[in-house]
Specification:
Elements: E1 9-14, H1 20-31, E2 34-39, E3 54-55, H2 61-71, E4 77-80, H3 85-96, H4 103-110, H5 112-121, E5 129-133, H6 138-142, E6 149-153, E7 163-165, H7 168-182, H8 185-188, E8 197-202, E9 207-216, E10 219-227, E11 241-244, H9 250-267, E12 272-281, E13 284-291, E14 304-306, E15 312-314, H10 315-323, E16 332-333, E17 337-343, E18 349-355, H11 357-361, E19 366-371, E20 378-379, E21 390-396, H12 399-411, E22 414-418
Parallel strand pairs: 1-2, 1-4, 2-3
Antiparallel strand pairs: 5-8, 6-7, 6-8, 9-10, 9-12, 11-17, 12-13, 14-15, 14-16, 17-21, 18-20, 18-22, 19-21
Helix pairs in contact: 2-3, 3-4, 5-9
Length: 427
C-alpha cells in the first residue's frame, strides 16, 4: 500500500461553486497530498491553500486540456467534483495516461437520454422515454405522451427542472416552466447544446435509493446504499433525507448493487467514484442515473470509513488515496448508522436568518447543523432552484434513530424568509 503521500499530486476538477472543494482540501492536508485545482473560477483559489487554480473553460474542452497539460506537471491522479467537470477530467486523465474514465463514457453519463439508451441496450429495466427539442410546441407533444410522465433537462443536476405531469394541461405548464429554466442565464452560459432538448419519460413509482461506489479498472464496489425515506412522487422531486445503511431487504440491496454495476459498465465508466440514483418498483431496479463523481454538496460528511486499524477516514480522503494508486479495499463503511438532511427551501424569498440552531444541535444523534445559505440572499426552491438552505448530519445506533434525529432537528429550526420586493420600472 502507498504510504508516502507527500510528493503525490492530485488534480481536482470543480466548478466555481460547490461545497466539496474545502472538504477535499482538508483531506489532502491531512494526508500531505498536494491538491491542484482546475476550475472555471478566475485564476486562483478563494481559500488560502498553497496552490493556484488552473483556469479552464468547460465549454472549450480542447483548449482546456492543453492548458491543464501545460500547467500540471507530475500529476498522479484526477478527480472530478460535479457533473460538468467529469468530461474534462476524463480527457485530461486520458492525455496524462492516468487511470480515468473514457471521455465518451463521462459524456454519456452526464446526458440522461444517452444514459437511458445505454441502460436499455444492457437489458436493464427502463421507463419509456423520448427526447424533444426544447423549442417544440408542448401542446403538440402533450397529445401523444403517456401519463403520468416526468419532464427532465438532459444535463442539470440536483433534481433541478424535474417535474411530473399527470395530464396534458400540467404537461404544457411544466414544459414551459422547464423551457424558462433552460433559457436562464446560468444555464446558457454553459454553452452546451445538451440544454436544447427535454427528456420525457414515464413516471416510475416506488422507493428511491442512492448508491455511492468506486470503480477500479472496471470493477465496481459499492461503498454505501442510502435510503431516501421521504416519498419522491412529484410534482417536483426535491431530495431531503439520505440514511445509511439501507433498511431494504438484503436481496433488494444485492439487486440494486448489481443493477448499478451493470449500468456503469453499460456507460463505459471504468475508474473512480460513482454516484447513482435508482428506484425499486415491484422488485425491479430502475437505474435513473450513474455519474462518474462522488455524492454532491456536503452529503459526503455522512460517510466515514475504517480499516483494520480502526482509524476513520472521510470519503474525500478515501478517494484521494484511490486516485494516487493506493489499494483502499480494506476500508469499509463504519458500523454506526448515519445520514444527512438537505434542508429544503420552503418558499421563494430573501433569507434573513435562522433561529433554533443551538436547540437543533442538542438533539441526540445530531453531529452538525450547517446553514449554507447567505444572509440577504434570494432563495429559490425547486424546480428552478439549484441549492439548499443547508445540511444536518446525524449518527445513531440504527437507521431509524438517524432519521428520527434529522427530522427532530429540522423541526426545531425556524427560517426567516421575507418576500422579495418586486422591481418596478420607473419613467
Amino acid at each position: 500500500m502507498i504510504r508516502d503521500f507527500v510528493n503525490k499530486r492530485v488534480l481536482l476538477f470543480a466548478t466555481t461553486t460547490g461545497y466539496q472543494i474545502r472538504s477535499f482540501g482538508e483531506a489532502a492536508e491531512k494526508l500531505g497530498v498536494r491538491l491542484v485545482l482546475a476550475s472555471d473560477r478566475c485564476d486562483r483559489l478563494e481559500d488560502p491553500w498553497w496552490d493556484q487554480a488552473i483556469p479552464v473553460r468547460y465549454h472549450d474542452e480542447a483548449q482546456s486540456v492543453e492548458t491543464v497539460i501545460a500547467s500540471a506537471a507530475g500529476i498522479h491522479g484526477v478527480i472530478a467534483v460535479g457533473d460538468r467537470p467529469t468530461i474534462l477530467a476524463a480527457h485530461v486523465g486520458q492525455a496524462l495516461g492516468l487511470p480515468a474514465n473514457p471521455p465518451e463514457a463521462a459524456r454519456a453519463s452526464r446526458n440522461k437520454r444517452d444514459s437511458r439508451v445505454a441502460f436499455k441496450a444492457a437489458g436493464l429495466p427502463t421507463p419509456w422515454f423520448e427526447s424533444v427539442p426544447a423549442d417544440r410546441d408542448p401542446e403538440e407533444v402533450a397529445a401523444w405522451v403517456s401519463y403520468p410522465c416526468v419532464l427532465k433537462p438532459l444535463a442539470l443536476s440536483g433534481s433541478r427542472g424535474v417535474m411530473r405531469a399527470d395530464d396534458p394541461a400540467s404537461f404544457v405548464a411544466a414544459f414551459h416552466r422547464l423551457r424558462r429554466i433552460l433559457e436562464s442565464i446560468d444555464v446558457r452560459q454553459e454553452r452546451d447544446v445538451v440544454h436544447d432538448e427535454v427528456l420525457i419519460e414515464s413516471f416510475v413509482p416506488g422507493h428511491e435509493f442512492a448508491v455511492e461506489g468506486l470503480l477500479h479498472d472496471g470493477a465496481f464496489r459499492a461503498l454505501a446504499i442510502f435510503d431516501k425515506p421521504d416519498p419522491l412522487d412529484g410534482p417536483f422531486f426535491e431530495e431531503t433525507l439520505y440514511v445509511t445503511p439501507s433498511r431494504a431487504p438484503e436481496d433488494v440491496q444485492e439487486r440494486i448493487i448489481g443493477a448499478v454495476a451493470t449500468a456503469a459498465a453499460a456507460l463505459g465508466l471504468r475508474h473512480g467514484p460513482i454516484h447513482a440514483e435508482c428506484r425499486v418498483n415491484d422488485g425491479r431496479v430502475f437505474v435513473l442515473e450513474v455519474a462518474g463523481r462522488p455524492i454532491g454538496g456536503l452529503c459526503a460528511r455522512a460517510l466515514r470509513f475504517t480499516d483494520s486499524g480502526g482509524a476513520a477516514v472521510s470519503l474525500e480522503e478515501l478517494l484521494l488515496r484511490h486516485a494516487i494508486g493506493e489499494d483502499v479495499s480494506a476500508f469499509v463503511r463504519e458500523r454506526a448508522a448515519s445520514g444527512a438532511m438537505m434542508i429544503p427551501i420552503p418558499h421563494r424569498g430573501v433569507f434573513r436568518g435562522v433561529r433554533g440552531v443551538e436547540d437543533a444541535q442538542r438533539v441526540t444523534g445530531i453531529e452538525e447543523v450547517r446553514v449554507t445559505a447567505k444572509p440577504d440572499a434570494l432563495l429559490v426552491p425547486l424546480p428552478e432552484g439549484r441549492s439548499y438552505l443547508g445540511f444536518i448530519f446525524a449518527r445513531a445506533g440504527s437507521p431509524r434513530g438517524v432519521e428520527r434525529a434529522l427530522r427532530d432537528a429540522h423541526a426545531r429550526l425556524e427560517f426567516v424568509i421575507e418576500r422579495e420586493i418586486p422591481v418596478v420600472s420607473g419613467t
